[in-house]
Amino acid sequence: MTYFNEDGIHVDGDHTKDVMRNHDGGEYIKLRWDPQSEAPTTTDRKGSRLWYWVKSGLCFLCLGLLALVAIKWVGPLFIEKAIIPMINWGTNRFSSLELAVVVFATIALFPTLVLPSSPSMWVAGMTFGYFFGFLLIISAAAIGVSLPFMIGSIFHHKIEEWLEKYPKKASLLRSAGGGTWFHQFRAVALIRVSPFPYILYNYCAVATCVKYWPYLVGSLVGMMPEIFVSIYTGILIKTLANATHQHHTLSATEIIVNVAGFCVTVGTIIFFTVYAKKKLKELRKDDDLLLK
């Protein structure tokens, strides 16, 4: 609605226009912007915050229901048909020492072959638990991230040419190059936690001029959330496998504990992923400012 008030002010929607007269008698319009018309009110802020917590609560509720369905019905069926035969085969085929060697070798060599090593980490959690499983995985992972780094240095120029085809990914990876030892360490750790495929980063890191030691330490620190999640997953699979093999259902307490553990695990992955992406964006902005 458009109208003139008594003071010669022309009002149109949220914008106010002063109608002025020049020396020749003609009119011109002087625009004025009312910031209060676009400023968010306290009610809007409270409403958006409330809606955020409602969405978060519904998300965790859905995750809990999904975990309940998986643990109660889908999980036992899959475990009975696939997991238990595999566990029995591994137990009968290998001793604990031999299984440790197999797990160590696969975690150390699979990244070089661009193959996922998460199943081997699950086996480490199933067989050796948190303490020995962690020591086994972290020592093998040190080799697993070092071999591609050394091999990639041979094809340094080829990798640089390949990265030029993906400028956004390349700028993300190059944020780890240069700077102090701590800067490189932090950037590598964040890249490991972020959704960037860490198997590819093992080879691409050499094209970012990052040094070996911050690369190694940052990689191991950044992989720790994934390692603990994988160990917990292995322990959970073993718990469900024992319950299925012995033909008894989990108690209400066991179900609640496992569902809660599953939700915490998923929440941990989401938290570290979002945190890493946020920090990487800040890191890239800082690097862009330095380059300017």
The number of strands is: 4
Instruction: Sketch the topology as an H/E string, one letter per element.
Output: EEEEHHHHHHHHH
Q: Give the overall shape, derived from the CA principal axes.
A: flat
Count of the domains: 1
Mean pLDDT: 75
Please give the share of residues in helix. over 70%
Rg of Cα set: 29 Å
Provide the low-confidence segments as ranges: 2-11, 13-19
Largest sheet: 4 strands, antiparallel
What count of helical segments does DSSP give? 9
SSE class:
alpha+beta
Strands of the widest sheet, in order across it, are: 1-2-3-4
Query: How much strand content do the residues show?
Result: 5-15%
Pfam family, one: VTT_dom
Keywords: Membrane, Transmembrane, Transmembrane helix
Organism: Phaseolus vulgaris
Protein name: VTT domain-containing protein
Task: Put the structure in a nutshell.
Helices cover 73% and strands 7% of the residues. The protein is an alpha+beta fold and 292 residues long.
Tell me what you see in this structure.
- The structure is a single chain.
- It is flat and about 55 Å long.
- Strand 2 and strand 3 (15-21) form a beta hairpin.
- The chain has a four-stranded antiparallel sheet, with no helix packed on it.
- With 292 residues, it is an alpha+beta fold.
- It has one domain (67-291).
- The protein is built from nine helices and four strands, in the order ββββααααααααα.
- Helix 3 runs antiparallel to helix 8.
